[in-house]
Amino acid sequence: MTVSADLSPRKPRKNRDAVPLSAVLSAAALGRRLMKEEGASLVSAVAAGSKNLPEGGRGTLLALLYGATRRTATTKALLAELLERAPKEPVSSLLEVSLAALLSGEWTGFTVVNQAVEAVRSHRSTERFAGLVNAVLRRYLRETDSLLAHVSASPEVRFNAPLWWIERMKAVYGPEAEAVLEAGLRHPPLTIRVNTRKTSVDDYLKRLETAGVPARALGLDAVQLLKPCPVEAIPGFAEGVVSVQDAGTQLAAHFLPVSDGDAVLDACAAPGGKTAHLLEKHRCSVTALEIDPERARRITENLDRLGLNAEVCVADASDLDTWWSGKAFDAVLLDAPCTASGVVRRQPDVPWNRRPGDPKALAKTQRMLFKALWPVVKPGGHLLFCTCSIFPEEGVDQVAKFLDAAPDASLVPLGEGLEGMMTLLPTDDDRPETDPRLPAVHDGFFYALFRKTDHRS
């Protein structure tokens, strides 16, 4: 359940004219094409589009690709109205990102049309479509109100998700489903974790106030910045005073029982936020596993910035022979692969990259990890299972199956007065906190805490 900071700026960078919009539209069209044809993630699409783009255009590329992804259903429906048959790639994707640019309101209609035509003319393989691109975008500008009124009747356009995703949410959450789906349409909050080894939440809030940065405390170690800003501009980030991490994700380090001196395993650790949080809270030793070498490198980079140390291993957590010494751990954090259905507002490509069978398939992977990792938990020790999914196959159903399969496992409270498992639905409601441990603003997550029976006691 890796949750990253949302990279999409609220507005394109002020120096967006440093790189022609036509070049950025072409780069964004490449990214969209990879997402549609190869199932590339939004992050991968941005990276691919950035390769041949001057650095000054990356902010605009982010805005275009995130904007196009947040309007996937709308641009798809508009093209179906504007064309009898969609043109071949990359022209189809260029039209999508151009329509998204028009919908954003960040450029004049003339600018977008002109630059989209320039983009299609700049490649010999697509130059013959310049007239088509010009006609489609100009027709959209003439008929904007009627076109949007027509396509907005579709639930897919309303919630920017495929129909199967919408129906599944409604089947699971009934009357609450619309609020969950609508949460996925909003920009995510910018939440940071205060490194309590270096400062306190109160002192950090005073630092932000002095710097003129509006913020508020969320939960225990979390602070929400009320106005977005680049990560590198966050006061204290460079010196490791704070890290970007959703308040709901931060609960993992609070829910997992750890004492100073304990040996802890973070089984699926990238990008390292929870590993770092555990080390900030406790004087423990952490083994952080990650199967992807590049993502494992990010763990080390994050720990270095914070001045923390862990044993970072590139390994498949389920293949114990490749990494486990045979010495059991006091506590294990299993942040399992999942559909990421709880973090759509942060990863708007998720509903479009998933298929109806994915929750069941990923639940199978989770059971395999449960089976593999339970033996590494010391008798009397704990395993915290968490995902950023809100589908029951990857949450409450998974817990029931694990308890049936592991007679020495019991579900124990996540904390005093709390149940043994918890589903958090994404919210940014400005409401009073009913429990000071639980933030009022967070993404969607599932948590469950297990204890291994200690037959010696």
From TrEMBL:
EC number assigned by the record: 2.1.1.176
Recorded catalytic activity of this chain's protein: cytidine(967) in 16S rRNA + S-adenosyl-L-methionine = 5-methylcytidine(967) in 16S rRNA + S-adenosyl-L-homocysteine + H(+)
SAM-dependent MTase RsmB/NOP-type domain: residues covered: 180-453
Active-site residues from the entry: C388
Superkingdom of origin organism: Bacteria
CDD domains: AdoMet_MTases (cd02440)
Localization (cell): Cytoplasm
Keyword set, alphabetical order: Cytoplasm, Methyltransferase, RNA-binding, rRNA processing, S-adenosyl-L-methionine, Transferase
PANTHER family, sorted: NOL1_NOP2_SUN FAMILY PROTEIN _ ANTITERMINATION NUSB DOMAIN-CONTAINING PROTEIN, NOP2 YEAST -RELATED NOL1/NOP2/FMU SUN DOMAIN-CONTAINING
Protein family: Belongs to the class I-like SAM-binding methyltransferase superfamily. RsmB/NOP family.
NCBIfam families assigned: PRK10901.1, rsmB
Role, per record: Specifically methylates the cytosine at position 967 (m5C967) of 16S rRNA.
UniProt protein name: 16S rRNA (cytosine(967)-C(5))-methyltransferase
Species: Sutterella megalosphaeroides
Classification of source organism: Bacteria, Pseudomonadati, Pseudomonadota, Betaproteobacteria, Burkholderiales
Gene name linked to the record: sun
